[in-house]
Each structure stands twice: as structure tokens, then as C-alpha cells.
Specification:
By secondary structure, the chain is an alpha/beta fold. Helices cover 27% and strands 32% of the residues. The strands form three sheets. Strands 1, 2, 8, 9, 10, 11 and 17 form a seven-stranded mixed sheet that branches. A seven-stranded mixed sheet has the order 6-5-13-14-15-12-16, with helices on both faces. The N and C termini lie far apart (53 Å). Bound molecules: flavin-adenine dinucleotide. Flavin-adenine dinucleotide (FAD) is lined by residues 9-15, 33-36, 43, 45-47, 110-111, 139-140, 234, 236, 238, 257-258, 268-272, 274.
Length: 360
């Protein structure tokens, strides 16, 4: 009976990070289970270049030192000289994380259950096979929950006529006027004629693909872009609720990624936080680490409740952006803001609804 040093359930970004960051430099036998075709997965993960992300600088696709937040009436531009907005593609992250010294075996199977026997775990897969491992890293997570907000999006990678895009400035959020929905367009201009253009909604219900496509086409036509070649697409759903599972009973079970609480629910940013989570787990003797500080979690909760109970059209985001400079804004997004920035953030929020949410 083979007992692996560790079993990784799910080879999304967090499962891959465990393979690289925790087990990459030794010669252990590791088993990973993934029931989807990860070689077909590709999308871009955005983040600001914090210190803990610097080790991955050479797999960054592109960096932007300027970004804008606005709507049809106002456009706030932020500049940040030392912590640019960056993207890494899933494909590059996967290849980087699979280049290790350890002996990783990948099983294209669904894990049905696992439970402790003696001082290790028995793992059962959907074909009734049994595997054994000393530790479990579990990244399965619920993407939806009744009555809770979701961030859902659909985007296309396009090629357009030369010199269409300003490749030095990304559009982080361009809000559009919708009935009872918060919607914005996100644009990553990779070059003067190539970009990812994404339509994103915060709501409880997912929409038909045609809805997001229409918003993208409308936005592009507003910018006089009528002709474009579609190269690929990406879509996703990110929970805007605290999707973390309870702390596991055994010290040798680790909930990782979104399941382990890495997502910042008010923004949907999770990639850099799940990497931080795995880095912290590597240097901890506990099976749980707090990636988001108490105050940040509290602010997130208040903000999400505000979004749930009010028809927000983007004005609060724009006001927040207009009260902060680029450095303060990125520090807030990455959970690194100082007291002065926190006070500025509180000051930017609509007072009455926030006081109401605070006492909920
Ligand atoms: C298209 C897209 C774009 C995103 N963009 C950004 C971004 O720009 N910036 C950012 O910070 N965040 C972004 N996110 C959010 C977040 O970073 C991702 O959701 C990320 O994939 C979370 O990683 P994870 O490892 O926690 O979970 P997942 O990526 O969901 O990985 C879990 C894996 O487990 C597998 N699995 C599930 N159940 C089983 C089972 N029973 N047995 C075996 N395998 C199983 C799944 O197939 C999956 O591959 C994006 C998300 C999506 C979907």
C-alpha cells in the first residue's frame, strides 16, 4: 500500500501553489486529483505587485502603472510607480508550478470522500479507487450560495486595428447604467491592438452569455470599435460571500484557496491572496492562516451587505477612487492599507447606509 506524503484535491491555482511552494524543492511522492481538463483552462489573474508576489515577476504577462475607474461622465486615473497592476495567465502559473523536484502523480479523477485511518488518510475517488496520504490539501469550494451576491463575468480576447488601445493604461472598472444591476467593463490592453474586454456583474443571478456579449459590443461601439477578431474567451463566477469552510478537525487537513478563505469577497480578488496563504502555511505549524486581517474582513462584510441591500450603480466605487491616490488604492485592494487610508475609505462611503450595515 503506497502512502503519499500529501494529496492535493483540485489543481486550480491553490493546488498548484501547494505543489510548487510547499513541496517543490524536495523529493516527496505527492498525488493530485483533478476532475476537469486543466490543460484546456486559461484565463488571466490580475493583482498588484506586492512583496509576496515578487518571486513570480518573471512569469508576469504584463504590468500597468496606470489604471482608470469611472463611467460615461467621469474618469479617475490612478498612477502607481512601484506596485503596478500585473497579470499572470493560468497556463504560465500551471507550467511554473509543475516544474518541481518532487514526484507528482496527477489522477484525472473526482474525489468523493476522505477520512482518517491510523495516522494517515484514505481517499476514495468516483471510480471507487482508494489512495492514501499523510496530509490533505483540499481546494473544493462552493461557488454559489442561495441569496448571496456573486461576481460573474464573461470576456473576450480581441485583435483590433492598429493603435486602437492605449497599452499603458488599463480600464479597471467602467460602470454602465443598468436597472438594478451593478455592471462594469474591465479592459486589459496587452498591446495597441490586442486586449481582453470583460463584462462583469455583481448580482445574485447569473445571466445568459448573450447579455455580457451585448454589453461588450455596446461598449466597443461607443469607442468606435466595430471590427474585431475574437481569439478566445473566459468566464467565471466568484463568490461575494465568505466561502471558507470551517477549520478542519485534523491538523493534517488544510483547506486552501477560496475554500480556505483566500478570496476578498467584496472585490473577487483571490489569486495573490491564495499564494500568500500557501506561503504562510509553508512557514506555519498550524493548518489555518488568516490571509485577511480582522479589520479588512469587517469592512468587506459591511460593504457586501451594503451592495446587497442598496441599488449601487458604481458611484461609491468612483467616489472611493477619487478620494485615494494610486498607491493608497492598491494598498486597500491588497489588504495593506494604513490607518490614514482606512479613514479616507470610511470617509468616502455613503454614511447612513454604512452606519445601518455596521449595526446589522
Ligand atoms: C475566469 C476567472 C478569472 C479570475 N480572475 C481573477 C483575477 O484577475 N484576480 C484574482 O485575484 N482572482 C481572479 N479570479 C478568482 C480566483 O483567483 C480563482 O477563482 C481561482 O481559480 C481560485 O483558485 P482555487 O484554487 O481556490 O479554486 P479553483 O480554481 O476553483 O480550483 C479548484 C479545483 O478543484 C477541482 N475540483 C473540484 N472538486 C473536485 C473533486 N471532488 N475532485 C477533484 N478535483 C476537484 C476543480 O475542477 C478545480 O480545478 C478569477 C476566477 C476565474 C474563474
Amino acid at each position: 500500500m503506497k502512502i503519499y506524503k500529501a494529496a492535493i484535491i483540485g489543481l486550480g491555482p491553490s493546488g498548484l501553489a501547494v505543489n510548487k511552494i510547499i513541496y517543490g524543492d524536495n523529493f516527496n511522492d505527492i498525488v493530485a486529483f483533478e476532475n476537469e481538463e486543466i490543460n484546456k483552462r486559461d484565463n488571466f489573474f490580475g493583482f498588484w505587485l506586492t512583496d509576496w508576489m515578487k518571486p513570480y515577476e518573471n512569469i508576469i504577462e504584463k504590468k500597468w502603472y496606470k489604471w482608470s475607474i469611472g463611467d460615461n461622465n467621469i474618469d479617475i486615473t490612478h498612477t502607481c510607480s512601484d506596485k503596478p497592476y500585473c497579470v499572470i495567465s493560468f497556463k504560465k502559473w500551471k507550467n511554473y508550478c509543475l516544474e518541481t523536484k518532487n514526484r507528482l502523480v496527477i489522477k484525472k479523477k473526482k474525489v468523493v470522500e476522505y477520512f482518517p485511518i491510523q495516522n494517515f488518510f484514505k481517499i476514495i475517488t468516483d471510480d471507487n479507487s482508494e489512495y492514501y496520504a499523510e496530509k490533505i490539501y483540499d481546494s473544493r469550494s462552493a461557488k454559489e450560495k442561495k441569496g448571496e451576491l456573486l461576481q460573474h463575468f464573461y470576456g473576450i480576447n480581441i485583435t483590433v486595428a492598429d493603435d486602437t488601445f492605449n497599452e499603458n493604461k488599463l480600464t479597471l472598472m467602467h460602470f454602465t447604467e443598468e436597472k438594478n444591476l451593478l455592471h462594469f467593463i474591465y479592459i486589459l490592453p496587452f498591446s495597441h491592438n490586442k486586449a481582453l474586454v470583460e463584462s462583469t456583474v455583481f448580482s445574485k443571478m447569473i445571466l445568459e452569455q448573450s447579455w455580457y456579449r451585448e454589453k461588450i459590443v455596446n461598449y466597443l461601439s461607443q469607442k468606435n470599435i466595430y471590427k474585431f477578431k475574437e481569439n478566445s474567451s473566459e468566464k467565471g463566477i466568484i463568490p461575494m460571500f465568505f466561502a471558507e469552510e470551517n477549520n478542519p478537525p485534523s491538523p493534517n487537513i488544510f483547506n486552501i484557496g477560496i475554500r480556505g478563505g483566500a478570496c476578498k469577497p467584496s472585490t473577487g480578488y483571490a489569486f495573490s491572496f491564495l499564494i500568500k496563504q500557501i506561503q504562510l502555511l509553508k512557514n506555519s505549524n498550524k493548518n489555518y492562516v488568516n490571509v485577511h486581517k480582522f479589520f479588512e474582513r469587517k469592512m468587506d462584510k459591511i460593504f457586501i451587505n451594503f451592495l446587497k441591500n442598496n441599488n449601487e450603480n458604481g458611484r461609491s466605487f468612483i467616489k472611493l477612487a477619487s478620494n485615494l491616490n494610486g498607491n493608497e488604492f492598491q494598498s486597500f485592494m491588497m489588504g495593506q492599507s494604513n490607518l490614514i487610508t482606512k479613514l479616507k475609505i470610511i470617509q468616502s462611503m455613503p454614511k447612513l447606509p454604512f452606519i445601518k450595515e455596521l449595526f446589522q
